[in-house]
Design a protein that fits this description.
This protein is α/β, with parallel strands linked by helices. About 35% of the residues lie in helices and about 25% in strands. The chain has a single domain, classed as HUPs (Rossmann fold), CATH 3.40.50.
Amino acid sequence: MRDPGTTAGMGRNVLVVSTLEQEAAVLGGLVGADDHVKVVVPVVKQGFLDWLANDEHAFSKAKAVAEDTAEELPADNVAPAAGEADVALAIRDALATFPAEEILVAVGPGERDAVTDVLDPEEGAARSVDGVPVRVVVVRAS
């Protein structure tokens, strides 16, 4: 992975997956203006009957949050999208069309363990998905 501090004018491909609505300020310090960023917000998990009634609403909400986050990031090239409710599946789906060099996963303190278990099931193993390094960022409420 290129170091943005030593490779002037050449940004990284960064996949941002966020389960939060208000984290752009924290993530803004982790991506640069030259980076190419894809922001994916997983559609909130819901029960089967809720899914039948509110699928479009949940998808629209996730897409709107992704768009808001994308607008707040300092990168010039940002693509927002809604993703699968399962974070690992949302990452794999995004990697199918976006050649990420790094994955940032933003979660709240209560979600950290569940997301870390999914992304790093073997204790001590380096966190990566399909060979792409993953950094889990825990965002505390302000």
